[in-house]
Design the sequence.
């Protein structure tokens, strides 16, 4: 890890950035306020909570601990982190139920739209001497019937070799390790980047406090985030992991699926590793 970055990354700063990012992507009040639906969902959520309280004889001390913790989650801006780590995977499971194409998984809190557009063979924006094993990620975007999708776009974002995301940790260039690659007329792409490190949930905030209190670990396996899209097709939000990597079988965000594990091989004539991964997109 880079000491300067570690020294200054705080839960509150990355939480505030994630909260701001979420607000700008999805302005408040866009969900359907269907009274019956709200009644059903909130009533069942409350009933499940009441059941837990009765079953475990929850005390006032515990109730107050929950209240102060929830207040702190808000103050830290960590609601996006909390929800995406412990809830989003089930929302994604339901949303992806009827799709035939490539597997998706959760988006997480650190996507930023509008990353620089790059040609079909490109290197993600990175610093001079960016640390980490070089990785060539290449493949083809096709329809579920196998038709190459010309001009498909592959948005990729990932952490650096210290596990930090640009725009959510200090001192990183704005678009570091973020890009929007436009595939060629056969849907092919070749993306040069570096392998990210595993990601640790900030230990100094409310989510870190919960992890400690519950005796869990705070880690996600190293991963690449992707949004793959093409005209007339459904966008896929996914992540890819590295075979044999730490936490691949024990992701705190429960977002690993067997289809999403890459096994890169050393490049024949140079540094680093390469891997091919093709995407199949469902019709819109
Ligand atoms: C991440 O990098 C991430 O992908 C998720 C889902 C949650 C927290 C940090
Ligand atoms: Fe991530």
Sequence:
């Amino acid at each position: 890890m880079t000491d300067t970055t570690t020294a200054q990354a705080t839960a509150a700063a990355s939480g505030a950035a994630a909260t701001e990012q979420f607000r700008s992507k999805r302005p408040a009040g866009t969900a359907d306020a269907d009274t019956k639906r709200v009644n059903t969902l909130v009533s069942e959520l409350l009933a499940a909570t009441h059941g837990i309280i009765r079953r475990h004889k929850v005390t006032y001390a515990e109730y107050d601990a929950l209240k102060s913790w929830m207040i702190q989650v808000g103050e830290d801006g960590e609601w996006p982190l909390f929800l995406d780590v412990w809830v989003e995977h089930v929302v994604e499971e339901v949303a992806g139920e009827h799709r035939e194409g490539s597997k998706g998984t959760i988006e997480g809190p650190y996507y930023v739209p509008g990353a620089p557009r790059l040609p079909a063979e490109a290197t993600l924006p990175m610093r001079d001497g960016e640390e980490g094993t070089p990785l060539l990620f290449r493949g083809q975007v096709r329809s579920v019937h196998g038709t190459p999708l010309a001009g498909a776009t592959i948005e990729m974002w990932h952490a650096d070799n210290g596990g930090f995301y640009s725009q959510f940790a200090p001192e990183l260039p704005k678009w570091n390790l973020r890009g929007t690659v436009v595939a060629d007329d056969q849907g092919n792409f070749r993306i040069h980047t570096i392998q990210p490190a595993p990601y640790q949930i900030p230990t100094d905030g409310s989510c870190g406090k919960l992890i400690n209190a519950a005796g869990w670990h705070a880690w996600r396996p190293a991963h690449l985030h992707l949004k793959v899209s093409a005209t007339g097709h459904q966008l896929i939000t996914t992540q890819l992991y590295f075979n044999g990597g730490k936490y691949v079988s024990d992701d705190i965000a429960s977002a690993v699926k067997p289809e999403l594990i890459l096994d890169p091989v050393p490049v024949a004539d140079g540094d680093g590793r390469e891997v091919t991964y093709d995407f199949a997109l469902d019709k819109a």
Remarks:
- The two ends are 42 Å apart (CA to CA).
- DSSP finds seven helices and 14 strands in the chain.
- The chain has one domain: 1-284.
